[in-house]
Design a protein that fits this description.
The chain has 22 helices and 23 strands. By secondary structure, it is of the alpha+beta class. Strands 2, 3, 4, 5, 10, 18 and 19 form a 7-stranded mixed sheet that branches. The protein has a 5-stranded antiparallel sheet with strand order 12-11-23-22-21, with helices on both faces. A hairpin with a 4-residue loop joins strand 11 (254-260) and strand 12.
């Protein structure tokens, strides 16, 4: 029994000794070896300062700087560390009212808890920042940080570049990469390429004494992490062409989209009216955004190039010509006679002139409504289909292959698919079996339920210029030292044989040489174009033009829309021709046309229309059929 008790004594003593040694070792590790625990426990002495990386810069295709960074200085506060001090002196040093001090401190406490540093005052001037640094020791709980804000040296392309703003609380909860007070891309390239541009934040651990004075980096920066600068982006746009296009569109509502058909790279994307992108930077952004948002006439925040939807008008006749040929109901020698209008039953589609007998090439050149109504009817009554619905479904498949009615895969947010009716739409609208080609004849001339965006129009011009294929339009051609996504190097073919494009290209060449856009001919450049005059139910017609040049080896494809501009040849065609001349030759020889475009003002008609009493429209239009239902079809 005694031996057993003696053994128990040694066992218990041994266990006690092991526990004591373990505790001593653990305490030694925590207090001497593991500095990170010391950092966590000494929040009053050590401060973890977020080091914000500069966002990547953005350059145009020729290396011109579009977006840069400059330093911004913020004052931070940790409410739990704030001690009594002379608030009057504090407010004087920062140039604020005492009420602002009280509300700022209260906001920081409520939104970010009392124990975490948050922004008390954004973007103080360098002079105030420097003076505050010297006096900061007097104000316990207040520190400062340096970050960067965006600057746009050329003041162009706001709808392409976009802007940044503070993240909201919901995003912070979903994504640990962000915390309140961080900035994120909100629109344009800033949004689409946020992951590449933002870089990676670092942390600097600083030591402060009891007087709130910085005394140096902890362990000489051993535990600091450096910020990683975001990737620079190379944009596909030509800054000089973009700037020139924006000047041409001053005092006009509409857009210009120019594409390099050889690559799908967007050379210019202009939405007018626009604004100086520097208006959306920093502390003035909220005020300027509200002002721009309230502009109901110009709507400068609206990206018309990607989000405005227009009837394509006569620009659509080029697609009708291609479908008709592929379907075998049309060739370059097909003749239709134009008496000044197309008549079928009780439906009449007026034509602008009595063109007489025309073949396909000249029908394109003179934009004959009668000719293309006949083409459309021949497609809808093609004997290889058993019904109008079946013929229409085939026609619709051709149209979607041109990107119409399909959301574009562009690397910018918010591109619309346009409007392209379905068989179900007409079944619901007219009744199943109660519609035929003549019922929807307005589609033949790009009116009715058709709606396209300027981006889709430019891509249509690129397809014709390439004789049947396109690359997905995109705005970024390089990320850092790497090329853009491989998906932008894939050819997409339309289901129409390349041989059928030649007569269309010839007809578009005639449009410029002696047709509806003859006044926009460019000296020394063979340009192919097509005018469009799209009816607007509320006022003056919209002026449209698509083009590519040179004819046989196109380097630029373009669309121009001038809202309320009247005939396609009045405004859109001259502007497009000037853009092409500028890009291909870097000079403008037609000074008179240039001055007329630069000085022209069509936005006055938009203002008049917005303030005029609304007209009533019968969605069951009969003769003349210029625009059918303005109701949107099912998407």
């Amino acid at each position: 029994m005694n031996a057993l008790l003696s053994n128990r004594k040694y066992i218990i003593g041994g266990i006690f000794l092991v526990v004591c040694i373990s505790c001593i070792v653990r305490l030694f590790y925590m207090q001497v070896i593991d500095d990170s625990l010391k950092l966590d426990a000494s929040n009053e002495t050590f401060r973890h300062i977020t080091q914000y990386p500069p966002r990547g810069c953005i350059f145009d295709r020729n290396g011109h700087l579009l977006v840069s960074n400059e330093a911004a200085y913020d004052i931070l506060v940790t409410p739990s560390q704030v001690k009594d001090f002379d608030t009057n002196s504090f407010c004087t040093d920062l140039g604020i009212a005492k009420a602002d001090f009280i509300s700022g401190l209260k906001k920081a406490t409520i939104q970010n808890t009392a124990y975490h540093a948050s922004v008390f005052m954004k973007e103080v001037t360098p002079e105030i920042y420097a003076a505050f640094q010297e006096k900061m020791y007097k104000y316990h709980g207040f520190t400062s940080q340096v970050r960067t804000v965006r600057r746009y040296p050329l003041k162009i392309a706001p709808h392409i570049l976009g802007y940044i703003g503070e993240v909201d609380k919901n995003l912070c909860e979903r994504d640990p990469e962000y915390k309140e007070g961080d900035y994120i891309g909100i629109s344009g390239v800033e949004e689409s390429y946020e992951d590449d541009l933002r870089g990676k934040k670092g942390v600097k651990i600083e030591m402060f004494d009891a007087m709130n004075k910085e005394v140096g980096d902890y362990k000489n920066g051993k535990f600091d992490t450096l910020p990683v600068t975001g990737d620079n982006l190379t944009c596909s746009i030509d800054a000089k062409l973009q700037e020139y296009g924006e000047k041409l569109m001053q005092n006009k509502a509409g857009s210009i989209v120019a594409i390099d058909p050889r690559t799908g790279e967007i050379l210019a994307l202009i939405s007018s009216p626009n604004y100086d992108p520097n208006m959306m930077v920093g502390s003035v952004r909220a005020k300027n955004y509200a002002r721009l948002l309230q502009d109901s006439i110009d709507v400068p925040l609206f990206n018309r190039a990607l989000m405005a939807m227009y009837p394509p008008g006569s620009t659509f006749k080029t697609i009708e010509a291609l479908i008709g040929q592929q379907e075998g109901v049309l060739d370059e020698n097909t003749v239709y006679s134009c008496p000044g209008a197309f008549h079928i039953g009780n439906v009449t589609v007026a034509c602008d002139l009595r063109h007489g007998p025309l073949q396909l090439e000249k029908a394109i050149a003179y934009s004959c409504n009668t000719y293309f109504c006949n083409v459309f009817m021949s497609i809808m009554s093609n004997k290889k289909y058993h019904s109008t619905e079946e013929a229409f479904a085939s026609w619709r498949r051709y149209v979607t292959s041109f990107g119409i009615g399909v959301r574009p895969d562009i690397d910018l947010p918010s591109g619309l698919r346009g409007s392209l009716p379905t068989e179900n739409y007409y079944d619901k609208f007219h009744g199943k079996g109660h519609w035929k080609g003549s019922t929807i004849i307005s589609l033949a001339i790009g009116q009715g339920e058709l709606g396209v965006t300027p981006l889709q129009l430019a891509n249509q011009a690129a397809i014709i210029g390439n004789r049947g294929y396109y690359y997905t339009p995109h705005i970024i051609k390089g990320i850092g030292d790497k090329p853009a996504s491989k998906k932008y190097t894939t050819k997409h073919f339309v289901p129409i044989e390349s041989k059928y494009f030649e007569v269309v290209a010839d007809g578009m060449c005639d449009v410029v040489n002696d047709g509806t856009a003859a006044a926009s001919k460019i000296p020394g450049v063979v340009m192919c174009g097509k005018t469009g005059t799209a009816q607007n139910p509320n006022g003056r017609n919209n002026s449209l033009f698509i083009a590519f040049a040179p004819k046989d080896t196109p380097r630029i494809a373009i669309s121009v829309v001038v809202e309320r501009g009247g005939w396609g040849a009045d405004w859109a065609a001259p502007i497009a021709s000037l853009m092409i001349e500028k890009y291909l030759t870097d000079t403008i020889k037609r000074a008179e046309i240039e001055q007329r475009m630069l000085n022209g003002n069509t936005i006055q008609y938009l203002a008049e229309e917005k303030t005029a009493p609304k007209k009533k429209h019968n969605k069951h239009t009969t003769k003349p059929v210029r625009m059918a239902s303005i109701k949107k079809p099912d998407q």
